[in-house]
Every structure is written in structure tokens, then in C-alpha cells.
Design a protein that fits this description.
By secondary structure, the chain is an all-alpha fold. The chain is built from eight helices and no strands. The model has no long low-confidence stretch (mean pLDDT about 90).
Amino acid sequence: MNSFKAIPAPARVFGFAGLIPFFVGAALCWATDATVTNTSLPLGSFVLTTYSAVILSFLGGIRWGVAMQHPSLINDWQVVAFAMVPSLVAWAALLTHAKVGLPMLLVGFSLQYVIDYRSTKNNITPPWFLTLRSLLTLGAILSVLVGWLGISGMFSASNP
């Protein structure tokens, strides 16, 4: 609990508020067949996939920002590549059907968490960052998984 209290208030408030679109998107994947104007995507798939892609790309931006603060990291090809990969995964997920794109985003969030974990354990990011990332990543992954299950048809009445 002390590590939760160590998270700066703005990061905590905005971080958890950032989970709301994940929860809404996951619920819409189960609740509606409405489609988004100018697309053929169901509303839930559109909301969850696009928001997830934006956030995964944002996490890559955090990684890039952290690397810029450390000359040894910003000159490390692997570190900079890992800062770019989330945006590329997010973009690729947007180019596919949500049944494929959401699992891609799940993998992206999972890999990003591993990088966040290693950054904190190597004293590159503060301990509160890992606490925040753990909670937010769990919320994002569960939402994407629930949304994917909603659109996958695995629990539909027509599926034996």
C-alpha cells in the first residue's frame, strides 16, 4: 500500500481515469452491434481497438522519453527499437480485424510491461512507476481480453 501512496497524485488520478475508455470499450464489445459511421466496425471493437492502440503507442513514447534522460540508453539501438515497437504493433493492430488486432495489443501491453518492470528493477524508473504500470497494465489487459471475448463469438448462442 505504501508503494501505491508513493505514486504522485496527478499520475495516479490521470492514470486510473485512463482506464475508463478501456472499460467502456470492453463493455460495448458485449453490449452493442451498432457500427461507427464511415466504418464497418462495431462500436465496441472500434472504441477498444483504437484507444488501446493510442495507449500502447503512448507507452512507447514514455520509453523514448526515459531513454532521452540517459545518454547510454538513447544511444542503445535495442532500447530505442523497443521504444518504437509499441507504436508499430499498435498501427498493425489497427490495420487488421479486431479479432486479430486485440490479441496483438494484448501481446504489446504484456511486452511493454516486461520492459517497464526491467526499467524499474534497473533503477531507471522510480519504484512507484512499476506499481502504477502494474495496476494500469492489469486493467488494460483484462479489458482487452474481455472485449476480445465479446467479439470473438466464443460465447454466442449460435456457438455450441
